[in-house]
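Lecture notes, part 5. Sequence design as translation. It can be helpful to think of inverse folding as translation between two languages: the language of shapes and the language of residues. The source text, in structure tokens, appears below.
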């Protein structure tokens, strides 16, 4: 592992968290109705959660910052949730059906949308959710670094600049998606069109499908309990006509 790169990745996750906190947002909060809202889920979890009955060994390990079992489990689950996206999603079918160019940017924008949906669900879990969110974003940048190395003869300086630009864009995109999911379909459609289609022509039917896709998958994610989320219960990223 490249430790300077790892530090940069972790810094990126902290930057995203700071941006949301500075805006007074809980980041990627899903407020779909009649589904239970994020703030309601956090409150109900606190009220009904039984007292922990950890064994002596677990308690001792949890006192060590580098051996906190819950944190380690959350980070591992975050990486597996990310892998479930990139391994199970049919990118080629998405590109063809919705007339997106088969480029690295299209791959990134589609992946980014799904990462945001996972973050939206994770942030319903308070502090642990923030850790899951940051770890999912970290997994994305690790994957981006791996994939960019496979692009062949590309100017390294130009490539770094492009990845840095994607990083800044991701922060703005997450905020736009947050606002879209908490608003009506027109606002969400605008956020999707600006990101996926880069404000170029897009069939209204394609954009409408993406809005329905996001709303329906957010509803699926919202039905998962915390334990199901940490157990990486498979999420079926199915197209609208297959759901």
């Amino acid at each position: 592992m490249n430790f300077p790169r790892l530090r940069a990745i972790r810094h990126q996750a902290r930057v995203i968290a700071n941006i949301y906190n500075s805006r007074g947002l809980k980041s990627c909060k899903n407020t779909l109705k009649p589904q239970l809202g994020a703030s309601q889920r956090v409150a109900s979890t606190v009220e009904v959660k039984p007292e922990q009955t950890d064994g002596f060994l677990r308690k001792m390990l949890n006192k060590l910052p580098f051996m906190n079992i819950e944190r380690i489990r959350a980070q591992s689950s975050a990486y597996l949730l990310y892998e479930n996206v990139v391994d199970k999603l049919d990118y080629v079918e998405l590109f063809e059906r919705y007339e997106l160019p088969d480029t690295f940017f299209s791959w990134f924008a589609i992946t980014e949308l799904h990462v945001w949906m996972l973050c939206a669900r994770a942030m319903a879990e308070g502090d642990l959710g923030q850790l899951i969110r940051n770890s999912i974003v970290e997994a994305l940048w690790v994957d981006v670094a791996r994939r960019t190395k496979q692009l062949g003869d590309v100017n390294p300086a130009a490539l770094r600049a492009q990845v840095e630009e994607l990083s800044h864009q991701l922060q703005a995109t997450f905020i736009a998606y947050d606002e879209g999911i908490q608003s009506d379909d027109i606002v969400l459609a605008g956020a999707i069109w600006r990101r996926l289609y880069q404000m170029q022509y897009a069939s209204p039917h394609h954009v409408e499908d993406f809005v329905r896709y996001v709303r329906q998958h957010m509803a699926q994610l919202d039905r998962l309990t915390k334990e199901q989320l940490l157990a990486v219960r498979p999420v079926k990223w199915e197209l609208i006509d297959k759901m």
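The translated text above is only one of many valid answers, since several sequences can fold into similar shapes. Residues 3-26+37-43+58-242 form one domain.
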